[in-house]
Amino acid sequence: MNLNPLPDFLVQQNKGYYCRYGDFYLDPLEPVETAVVSHAHADHARPGHRLIYTTAATSVFMQTRYTRQRKESYRVYGFSEHFKLKEVDLYFIPAGHILGSAQIMMIYQGVKYLYTGDFKMQEDSTCEPIEIEQADVLITETTFANPETKHPDPVEEIKKLNTTQINILLGCYTLGKAQRLTALINAHCPDKEVLVHHGILPFHRIYDREGFQQLTYLPYNRQAMKVPDQNKIYLVPPFTFSSYMRAKNVIRAFASGWKRLQHQNGIELLISDHVDWDDLLSFIEQVRPQEIWTIHGDGRHLKDYLSGSIAVKELR
Predict the structure, then answer these.
(1) Which of 130, 86, 88, 138 is nearest to 108 (CA)?
(2) Using one digit for the tens of pLDDT, what is the confidence trace for 33-90?
(3) Exposed, middle or buried, 314 (CB in 10 Å: 0-12/13-18/19+)?
(4) Which of 11, 81, 121, 315 could link 77 by a cystine bridge, Cβ 3.0 to 4.6 Å?
């Protein structure tokens, strides 16, 4: 059976990526009637929608962050649980990005369109591991889609924190990254004590309740961090990290896949929650799409690399 993907199945609009065949948006940036949300990071999950289709963990994170959003708005589905929006059949697949993160499979007229959201293939004990299914059209993020980008082993990166007993000010994203770092530190830096900024604490507690393992940490203690050589690591969100440029008696580090965020830090910590070039190619090989539509990044390297084998276009 020859299935032809529709070039306008998903189009980019000001509010987000819109599917007119199901009359819904994927990860819309402005309030819409019907939103299908891949995960709870703020650049994908916004408030104000009348209906929000998402996973259980994502709904909990959104309710924690967006307290004015009506709880009745959420339509929660488990992974692999099908639901229908008009004539489009949808279901969620674990994306391995953060707890509750999902790829979104959309099936219309027999054609499978797979939206990755943000995803990673590295091991992460704090969230559901990625699952890979074949699709006709792959709609993928290309955050690090560059042959020069190779993410190092996160275990070897986190072990860098063992090279000093001086307290460490560790900048990280509040949701997902902070919890992954805590688990890595607990496992591979056993002499280190994790202190958590008040802005991160609510999400640690949700991970404790909804996630896959108990994290070991304490709320931030100002006095404890003032004493040098105490083997403490203070996890702080990016804004707080930037405001502590002149912090004394600490070594600065920021956990990210972006090398530009490593400048002026005492320890380089390249830990990313996205796929690098090799993992993206491996993922594509397993999905086996006829076409690839790129979003969230620069897809030019991918288009050049796959020229003559798979059609690649930027979604517009």
Answers:
(1) 88
(2) 999 999 999 999 999 999 999 999 999 999 999 999 999 999 999 999 999 999 999 9
(3) middle
(4) 81
Judge whether residue 128 has pLDDT over 70.
yes
d(CA 19, CA 92): 16
**What is the DSSP pairing of strand 311-314 with strand 291-297?**
parallel
Amino acid at 194: V
Q: Model confidence over 140-171: pLDDT tens digits?
A: 999 999 999 999 999 999 999 999 999 999 99
Query: Helix or strand or coil: residue 232?
Result: strand
Residue 246: per-residue pLDDT: 72
Which residue segments constitute the domains of the chain, with CATH numbers given?
11-147+274-314 (3.60.15.10), 154-269 (3.40.50.10710)
Q: String of b and e for 261-298 (b: at least 16 CB within 10 Å)?
A: beeebebebbbbbbbbbebbbebbeebebebbbbbbbe
pTM for this entry: 0.95
> Pick from 176, 134, 124, 110: which is nearest to 155 by CA?
124
Instruction: Give me the residue label for tokens 């007119």.
Output: 20
CB neighbour class for 43 (10 Å; exposed up to 12, middle 13-18, buried from 19): exposed
Tell me the average pLDDT across 237-249.
84
Cα 215 versus chain centre, distance: 19
**DSSP class of 162:** G
Residue 178: CB atoms within 10 Å = 28
Angstrom distance (rounded) from CA 294 to CA 302: 9
Q: Is 18 within 8 Å of 1 (Cβ atoms)? A: no
Pairing outcome for strands 11-13 and 16-19: antiparallel
